[in-house]
Each structure stands twice: as structure tokens, then as C-alpha cells.
Amino acid sequence: MEACEVCGFEWDAVAAADIPARLRAAAAGFADVLRGEPATLSAHRDASTWSTMEYTAHARDVMLNLRDRIVLGLAEDNPTPHAMFGELRISAGLYAADEPARLATEIDVAADLLARTVEALSPEQLARPIFYGWPRAATRTLSWVAAQALHEAEHHLDDARVQANPA
Q1: Residue 32 maps to which CATH number?
Q2: Taken in order 22, 27, 31, 37, is the CA torsion positive or negative?
Q3: 79, 142 in Cβ contact below 8 A?
Q4: Which residues constitute the domain of residue 138?
């Protein structure tokens, strides 16, 4: 079974029915982290990591982006979605104006929109194919895409918690 080399997340081990509640729980976890000390929320532990704010903004954008990929997969047979350009969003300063309270609201909205999308899909829709380039290029299912959104949310929630609580 394919698993994340960092956190151990196994995409195929997640039932689609479990994804909505876990997405909402991850959003609540991000909101808790964002109530932390403001100075630590924008800090970087080192040059290779993002800040808590950046991890949260990335998770928000992933949920919105993957929701659109699910819609694309409903509309087209085995489409190849465009890259999300996560690093570019940071380097271009697209997250610079984010504020903790607003970001907490936005990640909650993004998680709920994606959760409701997953809840609306039939087993046949969840089984539709879509080409996905990460972690290895392969044709996946829309259920896998929903699990990938969950992986990003839970994985980066852990990252955000580490960044917000420097040792």
C-alpha cells in the first residue's frame, strides 16, 4: 500500500465516508494552532520549512484546489489537472496579507466545502479516474484525490503545530 514517507498516511486505507469528518477536524486543529502566539505564527524554524501561517494557507488552498480537481474529474474522463504551484504562492507573497483569524475562517470554509463535495458523491463518481502527478504519476480515482486532500490537511497540521511550538 502506498504511504507518505514522512507521516505514514496511506491513501487507500481511508474510506471516503471518513474523509469529511477528518477534514473538518483538521480545520478545527488549524484554528486552534492559529490562536497561538502571533510572533510564532509567521516564524520559520529554518530555511527549509514554511511558517505556521504558510502551512495553513497552503492547506486551505489545497482543499479548494482539490475540490476543483474532483469537479474536473466528474466532467472529464481521466483529466490531467494543472499543478497548484505551492512554492510560487509563497515566493510571490500571496500569503503575506493573511491574518490568523481570517485564515482560521477560510480553512474552515474550505474544509467544509470539500467535505460536502465528498459527501455528495456516489461510489460510482468516487471511482472515476483522474491523472495525478504526485507522489508518483498515475491514474487515480476521485476518492484518492479526496484522500490526498485529507493527507495534505493532516500532514500540514502536524507541520503547523511543530512550527507554532518551537523547541
Answers
A1: 1.20.120.450
A2: positive
A3: no
A4: 14-39+49-164
Take residue 79 and report the three cell numbers written for it.
483529466
Q: Is the pTM of this model over 0.85?
A: yes
Q: Can you give the length of the chain in residues?
A: 167
Grid cell at residue 92: 510571490
- What is the rounded distance in angstroms from the CA atom of residue 69 to the CA atom of residue 75? 10
C-alpha distances out from residue 40 to 104, 139, 155, Å: 16, 40, 19
In a domain, 101, yes or no: yes
In a domain, 2, yes or no: no
**pLDDT tens per residue across span 106-129:** 999 999 999 999 999 999 999 999
Name the pLDDT band for 167 (thresholds 50, 70, 90). Answer: low
**φ, ψ (nearest 5 deg) of residue 69:** -65, -35
Contacts for 145 with CB less than 8 Å, ≥ 6 apart: 66, 69, 70, 73, 130, 132
| Number of structural domains found in the chain | 1
Above pLDDT 70, what percent of the chain? 99
Residue 82 grid coordinates: 494543472
